[in-house]
Specification:
The protein is 46% helix and 14% strand. It is of the alpha/beta class. The longest helix is centred in the first third of the chain and has 35 residues.
Length: 316
């Protein structure tokens, strides 16, 4: 009897340790999942796990394969603009639904849901700031807001920003990422292409610099207008840049397109893009270009004084 009781006690003791070990491992796995959530990022190209903090320090560029992960407008502004110099413009402008458009849901409902989800009023943020101490007007599109589509507010914000830059004699930089014109606003969306382009022409007539930065993706009406009107056009590596989609072109031409078709590298080779700049070098590159193209301000009195000084020196 004693041996049987001891064996039952020993068995129950083993069971207790086994159950404790099992529950402990489960809680450990759960704890690891909770700790790992948001702390690590798996690259969509090479599959390498990177510590999120280190990835952000490298401006969301994979250190293994140089893949440029998509960043939102807040992060882009932090990457480019000097601290405490950002002054947002026209944040009060809000999109409306003049056509009362409806697809799978009402356009007004889609707008409200997107605004609540990502905390933006529309697909672009504009403002004034400094890059390495040099003043600029900056527009940053955000793909999270309905694919960065260009609606009336996007066009109005960019136009007003360009007009401010012309008045202040600031260079303009627009970081482009968009699926094109916003179909829910119909012709009103297409009108923005001409409106922004006209503002850029006035900016150009004032002999001021405009640099678009094409990121992944830049397509549709944005590519067909202000994205390709820059004095110097920059692009991020491997960015998709084009007008119509790849599948549409292949179905129209009935031909298989090259693998690198509509990439930044392909456009650089064919002269549509002036340079491909990695994101980690973008701020310094923009600063150098802006510094090189600063307008030289001279007054008649200054020119006259220089002429008199040269004349007196030559007489001596």
């Amino acid at each position: 009897m004693a041996n049987n009781e001891e064996s039952r006690g020993l068995k129950s003791l083993f069971d207790w340790f086994a159950n404790r070990r099992k529950s402990g491992s489960t809680s450990l796995e759960r704890q690891e999942r909770e700790i790992a959530d948001g702390l690590w990022h798996k690259c969509s190209k090479c599959g390498v796990l990177a510590y999120t903090k280190d990835l952000k320090a490298n401006q969301m560029v994979c250190v293994e394969c140089n893949h440029h992960n998509r960043v939102d407008s807040d992060e882009r502004i932090r990457q480019l603009i000097d601290s405490n110099t950002w002054k947002p413009l026209d944040e009060h402008l809000r999109p409306t639904d003049p056509l009362e458009f409806r697809d799978r849901k009402l356009y007004s409902d889609r707008l409200r849901e997107t605004q609540d989800k990502i905390g933006l009023i529309d697909a672009v943020r504009t403002g004034l700031g400094q890059i390495n101490g040099l003043p600029i007007a900056l527009g940053v599109m955000d793909f999270r807001f309905m694919g960065g589509s260009m609606g009336s507010v996007v066009g109005e914000r960019l136009t007003r920003m360009i007009e401010q830059a012309t008045q202040r004699r600031y260079p303009v930089v627009i970081v482009c990422t968009s699926g094109g014109a916003r179909m829910q606003e119909g012709m009103l969306s297409l009108m923005q292409m001409a409106k922004i382009s006209a503002a850029l022409q006035r900016h150009k007539d004032a002999r001021l610099l405009y640099i678009p930065v094409l990121t992944n993706p830049t397509t549709g009406g944005v590519t067909a207008s202000f994205a390709m009107l820059g004095d110097i056009i920059l692009a991020e590596p491997k960015a998709t840049i084009g007008f119509a989609g790849r599948r549409v072109i292949e179905q129209t031409l009935r031909e298989k397109l090259p693998e690198n078709f509509q990439t930044a590298e392909d456009l650089l080779q064919h002269g549509f893009v002036d340079d491909i700049v990695p994101r980690t070098q973008l701020k310094n590159t923009l600063a150098q270009l802006i510094a090189l193209h600063q307008p030289v301000l001279t007054t008649p009195h200054m020119v006259l004084w220089e002429t008199m000084s040269l004349t007196s020196t030559a007489a001596e």
